[in-house]
Specification:
By secondary structure, this protein is α/β, with parallel strands linked by helices. The chain has four domains: 154 residues, Rossmann fold, CATH 3.40.50.2300; 161 residues, Response regulator (Rossmann fold, 3-Layer(aba) Sandwich), CATH 3.40.50.2300; 62 residues, Helix Hairpins; 159 residues, 2-Layer Sandwich (Heat Shock Protein 90), CATH 3.30.565.10. It contains 19 helices and 19 strands. A five-stranded parallel β-sheet has the order 2-1-3-4-5, with helices on one face. Helix 2 runs parallel beside helix 10. The protein is elongated and about 150 Å long.
Length: 625
C-alpha cells in the first residue's frame, strides 16, 4: 500500500512538471490588472461583471494580461483593525506586481483606498464601477483625476410602472429587501418611488426580517399580488444570502410575479423588470480597460453606457402569465431563456440549407459526369483548334491560287525589265560611249526592279505564314496601297477597277499588318465574285474614314448584294453561297478584327451591291505595342 502511494505521488509530480508557472521573462509584455470587489465572493453580480469583463478584454484587447482579484468584504467586518490588516496585506502582496490598472467594483471602496492604500496602488489608472447614489450627490466615486467612472442606476419608478402596466388588476405590491448596507440602499430607492403609487395600490414592505419570516409571509400573500425584489445579501439574523438565492426561495413559496432591479436572478424565477445590467457593466468596463491599457487617459475614455439599464424578461415566466406576445412588453426588451422551436423559427434557413445541399449534390454529380468526359472534350478541342488553323492556312492558300496569274504577271514585269536593263548595260559597255551617268542609271533601274520583285515575293510569303506576330503601328493608307499592288494583275486581267478613297494624312492603328491584309483580301475577293455573278458596274471601292478616334475601313462593290438567307450569319464558320468556297474567310476575318478589339460588319447598299467594313481604334502615342 505504501509503495502504491509513493508511485502515485511520483506520477503526480511528473505530470505537474509541465504545468509549472512560466518564468517572469515570458510575462514581460503582459499587462497586470487588479480587481477590488467591495463585498464577498458569493455575489452573483460580481461573477457576472468579472466574466463579461474577461470576455470583452479577450475580444477587444487581444494581448496577454494577468488578472488579480481581491474581495474586501467590507460590509461583513466593518472594524478599523480589520480594514488596516486587510490593506496591509494587499499593499504588501502587490508591492512588486507592477499593476497597470486598478478596477474598483462596489460601494465604500474609495474612502478605504484613500485611507489605507499604499502609493503604488492609489496612484494607478483606475476604473470605478458602482451604483449611483441619488440621495448623496457628494458621494465620491473617483480616486483621482485618472479615474473612469461607470455608474449603474436604479429606476424604481419604471419598475412600478412596468408592473402595473402588465398586471393592471393586481391590487397589492410587496417590497422585499435584506438588511445589509447595499440592501438598505436599494430598498431606500424603491421606497422613494412609493408615494407616487401608494394611492393606486396597497404597498407592503417586507424588510428588516429574517429569511424564515419573509418566506412565511410570502406564503400567505393573496392572489393578484406583485413582488418587487430589491437586494437581499443578508437577513435580520445576519445570515448571508445573495439576491438570486433569495428569489429562488421566495419563488418556491408563491406564484406571484417577481420584479427585480438587477440582472442577477432571472434563472431563479424572476419575471423581469427595468434592471441595472451587471452584464453590460462588465462589458463597458472591459471596453474602457482596453483603451486605458492601450495608452488612453482614463479621464478621456468615451464608452457607450446607454444600455446600463434595460428591460429584461424571463420567457418562462412570461409564458406562465400569458404575456409572451403581449403588446405591453417594450419593443427594446431582452427576452431570456426563450423556448425556441428550431424548425419553425429557422424554417426558411433550414429550407435554404436543404436546398443548398441538394443543389450541391446535383452540382457534384454533374461535375463528376463532366469530369469523365473532360479528357475527351479537351482532345476534341485541340483537334478542332488544329483543324481551324489548317482551314485558315487553306483559305490563304486558296487566295494565293486565285492570285497566281496576277502575281506571275507582276513578277514578269520587273524580271523582264531587269533582263532588258542588263542587256542594255552589256551592249553599252562594249560600245565606244561609256558615259558613267548612263551606266549608273542602268544599274539603278536594275536595283529598283529587283526590289519590286522582292516585295511581291515577300508579300506572298508572309500571307502564306500561319504563325501570329506582335502587333505594331501600321499605316492603313499604305497597307491598302500595298493590297492594291498585290491585286493589280488580277484586276487588269478581269477588267476590274479598284478605286481608293483615302485621307491625305497617314492613318495609324495598332495591329498585325499581314492579318489586316488578309481581311482586306477577303473583302476584295468577295467583291470580285459578287461582280462576276452579274453586274454591269465593275468598280470596287476601298475607303478609309475617321470618326472621332475610330478608323473605319470598307470595301464596296456594285454586285447583286448579300443574300438575305445568310445575311445574319455571314460571319459564322462554313457559311457560304459560293460553290467552291470554304465558308471560312469571313469567319477568320471576324476573329482577326475581334482579336484587334475592333468591329466588323456587312450591309447591302441602297443603290445596289454590298459594303464590307471593319473599324479599329486610332493609334496614340501612349499606346503600348
Amino acid at each position: 500500500m505504501i509503495l502504491k502511494t509513493k508511485i502515485h505521488m511520483l506520477l503526480t509530480f511528473l505530470l505537474l512538471i509541465p504545468l509549472q508557472r512560466p518564468s517572469a521573462a515570458q510575462y514581460e509584455e503582459a499587462k497586470n490588472i487588479l480587481f477590488l470587489f467591495s463585498l464577498n465572493q458569493g455575489i452573483v453580480a460580481y461573477q457576472m461583471t468579472l466574466e463579461n469583463f474577461k470576455n470583452t478584454l479577450r475580444d477587444e484587447y487581444g494581448k496577454p494580461y494577468n488578472l488579480y482579484v481581491e474581495y474586501l468584504d467590507v460590509g461583513k467586518i466593518p472594524y478599523i483593525s480589520y480594514q488596516e490588516y486587510l490593506f496591509e496585506h494587499i499593499n504588501e502582496k502587490y508591492k512588486s506586481a507592477n499593476i497597470d490598472l486598478l478596477i474598483c467594483v462596489g460601494p465604500r471602496i474609495m474612502p478605504l483606498l484613500e485611507k489605507y492604500a499604499a502609493t503604488h496602488i492609489i496612484n494607478l489608472p483606475t476604473i470605478s464601477l458602482d451604483l449611483r447614489n441619488p440621495f448623496n450627490e457628494s458621494q465620491k466615486y473617483s480616486l483621482h483625476s485618472d479615474t473612469k467612472e461607470i455608474l449603474l442606476s436604479i429606476n424604481a419608478k419604471k419598475n412600478f410602472e412596468l408592473a402595473f402596466s402588465l398586471f393592471p388588476d393586481f391590487t397589492s405590491v410587496y417590497i422585499i429587501s435584506g438588511v445589509s448596507d447595499a440592501d438598505a440602499y436599494c430598498s431606500k430607492i424603491i421606497k422613494s418611488a412609493v408615494p407616487e403609487f401608494e394611492k393606486l395600490k396597497n404597498i407592503i414592505n417586507l424588510t428588516d426580517l429574517s429569511m424564515e419570516e419573509v418566506l412565511n409571509k410570502v406564503t400567505l400573500i393573496p392572489q393578484k399580488s406583485i413582488i418587487i425584489m430589491a437586494s437581499f445579501l443578508s437577513d435580520a439574523n445576519h445570515i448571508t444570502y445573495n439576491t438570486a438565492e433569495a428569489v429562488r426561495l421566495i419563488r418556491s413559496r408563491t406564484s406571484a410575479p417577481i420584479f427585480i432591479l438587477f440582472d442577477t436572478a432571472f434563472n431563479e424565477g424572476a419575471l423581469g423588470g427595468f434592471v441595472g445590467s451587471f452584464t453590460n457593466g462588465g462589458l463597458v468596463a472591459g471596453k474602457a480597460a482596453t483603451k486605458i491599457l492601450n495608452g488612453e487617459n482614463p479621464n478621456h475614455v468615451q464608452i457607450d453606457e446607454s444600455k446600463s439599464n434595460q428591460y429584461m424578461f424571463n420567457y418562462q415566466e412570461l409564458e406562465r402569465f400569458n404575456l409572451v406576445n403581449s403588446s405591453l412588453i417594450p419593443d427594446e426588451s431582452i427576452i431570456l431563456f426563450e423556448k425556441t422551436n428550431l424548425i419553425s423559427r429557422y424554417k426558411w434557413i433550414l429550407a435554404a440549407g436543404i436546398s443548398f445541399i441538394i443543389l450541391q449534390a446535383l452540382l457534384i454529380i454533374t461535375l463528376v459526369r463532366k469530369n469523365k468526359n473532360q479528357k475527351l472534350l479537351t482532345h476534341q478541342l485541340i483537334e478542332t483548334e488544329n483543324r481551324y488553323r489548317e482551314l485558315v492556312r487553306e483559305d490563304r492558300l486558296q487566295r494565293m491560287s486565285e492570285l497566281t496569274a496576277s502575281l506571275s504577271h507582276e513578277l514578269n514585269q520587273p524580271l523582264t525589265a531587269i533582263r532588258n536593263s542588263a542587256q542594255a548595260g552589256l551592249k553599252f559597255m562594249y560600245s565606244e560611249n561609256t558615259d558613267p551617268k548612263i551606266m549608273n542609271e542602268i544599274f539603278q533601274n536594275i536595283v529598283e526592279d529587283n526590289k519590286r520583285a522582292a516585295d511581291v515575293l515577300s508579300s506572298i510569303r508572309e500571307l502564306m505564314k500561319l504563325e501570329k506576330r506582335e502587333k505594331q503601328k501600321i499605316d492603313l493608307n499604305l497597307m491598302i496601297k500595298q493590297v492594291k499592288e498585290i491585286f493589280r494583275g488580277e484586276t487588269n486581267q478581269k477588267n476590274l477597277k479598284l478605286q481608293l478613297n483615302l485621307p491625305e494624312k497617314p492613318v495609324y492603328v495598332l495591329g498585325d499588318n499581314i492579318q489586316i491584309q488578309q481581311v482586306l483580301l477577303n473583302f476584295i475577293s468577295n467583291a470580285e465574285h459578287a461582280i462576276e455573278e452579274g453586274s454591269s458596274n465593275n468598280m470596287i471601292e476601298m475607303n478609309v474614314m475617321i470618326v472621332n478616334d475610330i478608323a473605319i475601313t470598307s470595301v464596296r462593290d456594285y454586285g447583286k448584294g448579300i443574300d438575305e438567307s445568310v445575311k445574319n450569319k455571314l460571319f459564322r464558320p462554313f457559311v457560304t453561297t459560293r460553290e467552291k468556297g470554304f465558308g471560312i474567310g469571313l469567319a477568320i476575318s471576324k476573329s482577326i478584327i475581334d482579336e484587334h478589339g475592333g468591329k466588323i460588319w456587312a450591309e447591302n447598299n441602297p443603290d445596289g451591291g454590298a459594303t464590307f467594313s471593319f473599324q479599329l481604334k486610332l493609334w496614340n502615342d501612349d499606346q503600348r505595342k
